[in-house]
Amino acid sequence: MSNFNIDLFFGILLGLIAYILLYIGKGVQKYAITGLQTDKTLKSKHSGVWIFGTVLTVSFLGLHWVSLAVFHTNVNIIAPLEGVGLVSLLVFSFFVLKEKLTKWELGGTLLIITGTVLITVFYGEPTELLYSDFNLIFFLIILGAFVIPIGVLSYLAFQKPSKIKGTLLGLSAGTFMAFQTVSKRITDIDELVLIFTFVTFALAALTLAYTQFAFTMAPANIVVLSFASVSIILTSILGSYAIKESILPIQIGGMGCIIAGIIVMNLFQKEKIEKTNQ
Fold first, then answer.
1. Is 12 in contact with 81 (CB distance < 8 Å)?
2. What is the pLDDT of residues 28-64, one digit of tens each?
3. Which listed site, 99, 120, 229, 234, has its alpha carbon 20 to 30 Å from 255?
4. Which of 248, 270, 231 is nearest to 64 (CA)?
5. What is the pTM of this model?
């Protein structure tokens, strides 16, 4: 293990704060959207609540960006910290929304914390990204492979909304999130900082839009599961092949723990729903 590195410390710290703001913001947005659907008017208190949730998610953009481009933090370290964001959403729901915690959520939290420790303890030195590290062809091919089916899905979802389409839109939002994360890291390259700044803002807008779209069709836990899982996995693939960032086997195991924790926290919700309805 490397000696203490101040850049890595602040990179991870800002990454953690960013994901906490993002997921609490998502919780606030989902709460507001549910209220707006019930009120059936934009002139309600829920509009202000949604704006507040959006401010939190936008705050994520800047902090996340600084972590990746200023402190040169590896995307394979930052992306899995998204699991901590889910834990913060769980805490928010418990204390603010007064939701009870189930054994599944507690078990999932333990897995996420374990995975986060494995990923952040066995780190590599933060390094500035170079133009020679970037594989533009791979980046564009993978982006194109996702954008076309997402476009078709969007058209079908507008025509006839459904729960399964909402789940797929959650996957789409997570896809844009992965490309957004890697694009922020690419702005560390002097020759590409301008163009990928615009790319990042475009992807951030798509991430926000598709998340809200998904929330209108599918339960929040399913949207979050879809979003977080594909975001972590795809970011790791892009990080390894598009910008040549290495990842240790033990860190892959840590990612597995985090994804397993996300699944446990979000899929096994029947027990909680039944208790709520009693």
1. yes
2. 887 777 666 666 665 566 778 888 988 998 899 999 9
3. 99
4. 231
5. 0.85
Structure tokens at 164: 């399964």
Q: What is the pLDDT of residues 208-235, one digit of tens each?
A: 899 889 988 887 778 888 898 899 989 9
Q: Grade residue 268 by pLDDT with cuts at 50, 70 and 90.
A: low
Residue 3: band (very low, low, confident or very high) from pLDDT cuts 50, 70, 90: low
Q: What's the pLDDT score for residue 212? A: 85
Three-state secondary structure of the chain: CCCCCHHHHHHHHHHHHHHHHHHHHHHHHHHHHHHHHHHCCCCCHHHHHHHHHHHHHHHHHHHHHHHHHHCCCCHHHHHHHHHHHHHHHHHHHHHCCCCCCCHHHHHHHHHHHHHHHHHHHCCCCCCCCCHHHCCHHHHHHHHHHHHHHHHHHHHHHHHCCCHHHHHHHHHHHHHHHHHHHHHHHHCCCHHHHHHHHHHHHHHHHHHHHHHHHHHCCCCHHHHHHHHHHHHHHHHHHHHHHCCCCCCCHHHHHHHHHHHHHHHHHHHCCHHHHHHHHC
Report the distance separating Cα 179 and Cα 183, nearest Å.
6
Amino acid at site 125? E
Local confidence band at 274 (pLDDT 50, 70, 90 cut-offs):
very low
